[in-house]
Structures
1.
Amino acid sequence: EAGVVQSPRYKIIEKKQPVAFWCNPISGHNTLYWYRQNLGQGPELLIRYENEEAVDDSQLPKDRFSAERLKGVDSTLKIQPAELGDSAVYLCASSLSYFVWGSSYEQYFGPGTRLTVT
Amino acid sequence: KQEVTQIPAALSVPEGENLVLNCSFTDSAIYNLQWFRQDPGKGLTSLLLIQSSQREQTSGRLNASLDKSSGRSTLYIAASQPGDSATYLCAVYSYNNNDMRFGAGTRLTVKP
């Protein structure tokens, strides 16, 4: 079974330029997450989707970040314009669902996209 | 707000040694705790998931324990191997935040 697929794996852009990341979750997984991981730190949640609905985007910097999950499968995360502080690894994860019977489903992570803003 | 701390930040051991990685969290109202492994340039691989009602989980040479009341978890690795070298992260899913919070990780090096 294929895991979570992300592209591109690496991206170098100049500040003020736009950039987009793509994620294809594991087949059948309804919940999709985007995380940002700064160097030497753990991932931080940016946005969570239940099917095509964004149910938790409280940590997404909405002035420059946007995301979409059309048809409840693939997802795209966009930054426009990028700033130097956006340099990080952007991780996508998926799970069967999010919450049931007082627990949460195991999350499966993709390899991430390493973004460098110069 | 849930805070997750991992100590030590880095650890280097000779091959064959048993070792313990520590994770502490400030809010004990959690649903579960998960340990991940991250290799350089790679995503996260789930190692063990402990539900709040459980005390420990085992997988091969790995054993994770959870003490919710004290806000602590440990990951025990038996007979360490060079292939265990990676960064290990713990994450907790808590009631109040309604999301998963990660520690910064422990970077483990196992020397042949």
2.
Amino acid sequence: SQQGEEDPQALSIQEGENATMNCSYKTSINNLQWYRQNSGRGLVHLILIRSNEREKHSGRLRVTLDTSKKSSSLLITASRAADTASYFCATDAPTSGTYKYIFGTGTRLKVLA
Amino acid sequence: SAVISQKPSRDICQRGTSLTIQCQVDSQVTMMFWYRQQPGQSLTLIATANQGSEATYESGFVIDKFPISRPNLTFSTLTVSNMSPEDSSIYLCSVVRDPVTYNEQFFGPGTRLTVL
């Protein structure tokens, strides 16, 4: 079953604008990861944020985590056409006693040149 | 990060046949997983590949349909057995190097399977 739900399902913006994607999850977590996938290819790991962290940055990416709301957001600033991809969040399930990650439904981002 | 390769990268198979997908990692990793991504969908975890023992399958996936081997800490195979068109998907292996201290999960490039 899906642990995470992402919104919006699809997002279309102009190059140079910022893109924000949200991920909500159901149970407590240790870590949350964000990934990018271009056109059905393999997943590229973007950022891992731990449950005791509130915000992380990597280049033009900013990830926030609110464990009280069980939600995370991914912000891409100054978007480029090359950012066009699907973005997924993935959460672990520490209550299961394993380190497996369950993926959200994904957001399809299209950046128009 | 870990360098992960998968073979084959893609295949077209006939209904009723089986395909074995290989996953090779450039260094020893603690955990390996297999995921399926059906067309236009997100990723669904099939199983955790355990070294030296039977894989741990998620609900809805069984060993007879998706037998998995993991003979060592750098290699695993997933077999898709008695295939039907519904098995057409991208199959991805992923690894976690050390879940206690370094638990980013990295993915291979995927195997795109089409079943006719």
